[in-house]
Amino acid sequence: MVHMTVDYTGDLRCRATHGPSASQIETDAPADNQGKAERFSPTDLVGAALASCIATTLGILALRKGWDLRGMRVEVDKEMTTSPPRKIARLPVVLWMATDLSPEDRQLVENTAHTCPVYRSLSPEVDAPIVVHWPK
Question: Looking at the whole model, is its pTM more than 0.90?
Answer without folding.
Answer: yes
